[in-house]
Structure formats: structure tokens, C-alpha cells
């Protein structure tokens, strides 16, 4: 409960200044974003619940589980063993999909992961 209140309060502070970014909307989740939006009129803002709902629904993924690749795909494709790199790589791919820098397609994500690995090896 405390984490939800903290997240909604943080979201409200951002929302008082500007619209939710895709990344923040993704991190918050629809329920917390809508709660922050509902509170906006109490702080002099104008709530637009429909926009928040539609923007959330338009996100390419709603959780890491929706990503077209998983840790096994990355380990197999990059021929690497599990380690901290795996979480970092998945987080990077997740963010790239949410921000629409890459399509949520297995081949596109594996290509991006390979590029990132080659760049970090140099």
C-alpha cells in the first residue's frame, strides 16, 4: 500500500508539470496512472482519464512478460551464460520497445542485443 501511495504521489508530481511519458506510464501501470490522474483536479489540473487509459492501452507491451524474447533466447543467441548482463539486457530491450525504438519482434530484439554486445566488447 505504501509503495502504491508513493508511486501515485510521484506520478502526480510529474503529471502536474506535463503529460505522462510512455516509459513512466509503463512503469506506473494503468491503475496507478489513473489514480494520479483522478487526483489532478485537486491540484488545479484537468484530468483526462480517457487519454491516460488510451495511452496505456497503446503501449506496445504492458509487462516484461510481453517482450518477444526472454532470458533463454538471449543466452542462446549470444552464447553466454546467465549473469547480471542478462537483467541489464532485458531492461534495455524492454525500455527500447516501450519507447518504440525497436519493434517487439524476436528477430529485431535479438539483433539489437547482438549490436549492444558488440558495442560493449569494443
From TrEMBL:
Keywords: Magnesium, Metal-binding, Nucleotidyltransferase, RNA-binding, Transferase, tRNA processing
Residues of the signal peptide: none
Location of the CCA-adding enzyme C-terminal domain: 2-111
GO biological process: tRNA processing
MF terms (GO), sorted A to Z: metal ion binding; nucleotidyltransferase activity; RNA binding
Name of this protein: tRNA nucleotidyltransferase
Amino acid at each position: 500500500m505504501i509503495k502504491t501511495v508513493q508511486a501515485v504521489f510521484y506520478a502526480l508530481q510529474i503529471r502536474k508539470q506535463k503529460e505522462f511519458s510512455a516509459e513512466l506510464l509503463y512503469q506506473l501501470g494503468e491503475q496507478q496512472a489513473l489514480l494520479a490522474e483522478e487526483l489532478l483536479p485537486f491540484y488545479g489540473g484537468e484530468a483526462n482519464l480517457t487519454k491516460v487509459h488510451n495511452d496505456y492501452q497503446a503501449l506496445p507491451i504492458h509487462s516484461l512478460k510481453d517482450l518477444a524474447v526472454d532470458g533463454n533466447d538471449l543466452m542462446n543467441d549470444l552464447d553466454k551464460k546467465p549473469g547480471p548482463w542478462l537483467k541489464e539486457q532485458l531492461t534495455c530491450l524492454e525500455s527500447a520497445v516501450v519507447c518504440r525504438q525497436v519493434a517487439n519482434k524476436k528477430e529485431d530484439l535479438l539483433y539489437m542485443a547482438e549490436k549492444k554486445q558488440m558495442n560493449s566488447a569494443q
